Structures are given as structure tokens and as C-alpha cells.
Amino acid sequence: MSLKTSLSGTMMMNKGKILIVIYILTSIFVSAYLIWLNSHQEPEIRIIEKPVYVEVEKPKYIEKIKKYPVEISKVVVLEKEKIVEKEKLPEWLSGATEYVILAIGDVQPYRGKTRIISLLNTKTGEGFLIQKQLPYSEPLFQFKWDLRVGGGWDFVNQSGIGRLDFDFLKISKVNFSLTGEVEKDRIKGGIWIWIKF
Prior knowledge:
25% of the residues lie in helices and 30% in strands. It is of the alpha+beta class. The chain has a four-stranded antiparallel β-sheet with strand order 3-4-5-6, with helices on one face. It has a two-stranded antiparallel sheet with strand order 1-2. The model has no long low-confidence stretch (mean pLDDT 81).
């Protein structure tokens, strides 16, 4: 056996070992991702098909704060029947005489949470809302589930193109995507690493 044959055999074995290690690491990563995906839901964006009124989540510290009654002679409320008609309030609220409406407001879209506080002026008897958008910071490490499928036309080659992008991981500002493209005579795919500014 010559030295050249021996070296090429050793290199083939090393390439085989590297491929096995890459396959094992990829399998572990995909398995961990699928387990995480099965047990978690990404809280970033909620798509609401049918808007309904729900109770606003309270901060945890509110439960520990003492509550006490304030005596006032009158409270100015909004005409409930008109609001029920305009806002399509749920049945349990529209028919309940023990609930009155003090204030209504709209909160601008925001990726993080918005804190809303309802206030009552005891001198005038009117209620109003104040809000504060809580600081939002991108997580350092985040699994994603962002799938984009599209089609287009290549003017140079005069052919249709189909494209699929699947964003699956974000580390700081670096995003990892699996991508695939189909043209009339070829298919290509791979992993795409990109940064969002």
C-alpha cells in the first residue's frame, strides 16, 4: 500500500466522521427545537380574527395592595346602552346593572405590554384612563416559527419562481432561516443567515 493511498483513506475516514458529527448535532438541534415548539407558544404577535372583550391582566403586586372605599356623592358614567350598541359588549356585561362604564380608550399597537390604569376624579365624579407602554427588549436567544411562501416572475430567464423561507432561530440580531427556491429547471435550498437592523 502506497503512502498516497493510505493518506486518501485516512482523509475519507475523517470526512466520514465529520459528517456523522454534523448529522448527530443537527438531529439533536432539530429534536430540541421540535420539543420546545410543542411545549411553547411564541407570545410576540397575536392575530385576532374575531375581537372580543376580555378582562385586562393585572400586575401581580396589585393583589397585595390594600383596597378601601371612598365616599363620593356622585359618579359620572357613560350611557351604557349606547356603548353596548356601538362596542358590541358581551351579554354578561350589557345586562348587568351592577356594572357601569367610566371610560373607554384605544391603545396603539406595540410589541411589548401596555399598562393601563383607570382613574376616578372624586371632585368631578368622572373616570378616565392613563397608559404606559412597558419597555420591550428583544430576547437574546429565541426560537421562531415564521414561514413565508411566495411566487414571482424572473424577467431575465423568463420563468416563474417559487420561494419558501422558514425563520427558525434568532440569536441577538442574527437570524437563521431555511430557504428553498424552485425555478422551471432547477431547485435550490440552503440555510440563510441574516441580520435585522
